Amino acid sequence: MAKTIEGPRNARSRRTREAALAATREILERDGFEALTMAAVAERAGVSRQGLYLHFSSRGDLVTALFGYMAEQEGLHASLAPVREAPDAVCALRAWARHLASYHPRLIAVDRAIDRVRHTDPDAARHRATVDEKQLGTCRRLAERLAAEGRLAPHWTPGTAADMLWGLIATDVFERLLTGREWTREALADHLAAMYEATFVSGPGGPAAGG
How many other C-beta atoms can be found within 10 angstroms of the C-beta atom of residue 43? Predict the structure, then answer.
């Protein structure tokens, strides 16, 4: 009997948690970070405040959990698989461009909401720091792999290449090209890959050594 009761209870708990995180994302996308309160999340999710507090003790907890929720909902692990499994560093760089062009635009609205207040709101700052750490970690691995395979272009070190790759993920870049210039995601992926190779790769497909 205990097992029978525990199953539905766990299922309800998961639904409540997911509903709260979905509501958090929706509020950020539609109303901005300033509108994000525990009361607003409970109302949007259709749960009681007491039920919400059983899962998240504060707005900060909600925002902290949001990264993992969005990553799962948008398929981050699968999107990054071609980067991890690429046979060489140049293929990994191309896969990174495709990942960014496909994945990052879906997060622009939340990124915008976070960035508007990250200098004044500690919850937003923590979320931004988590995202930055994850992105920069991938950029470091790409740059270090290029260097290890002897394909990192002159002038760059693994550290500066990683920093530049990370800087190029800025939301403004994607928004200007996709919205302002009406690029397709396919065009964005192609041009990102071409720019990455021309800038960071030495030898065939990139700058000649010493150039």
Answer: 15
Residues 120-145 as b or e (16 or more Cβ within 10 Å = b): ebebbebbbeebeeeebebbbbbbbb
CB 143 within 8 A of CB 200: yes
- Report the greatest alpha carbon distance in the chain: 73
154 secondary structure, DSSP code = T
The letter for the amino acid at 36 is L
Q: What is the pLDDT of residues 9-34, one digit of tens each?
A: 687 888 899 999 999 999 999 999 99
- Give the residue from 19, 65, 78 showing the smallest Cα distance to 46: 19
The continuous run of DSSP H or E covering 119 comes out as none
- Strand partners for 152: 201
204 burial type by CB count under 10 A (0-12 exposed, 13-18 middle, 19+ buried): exposed
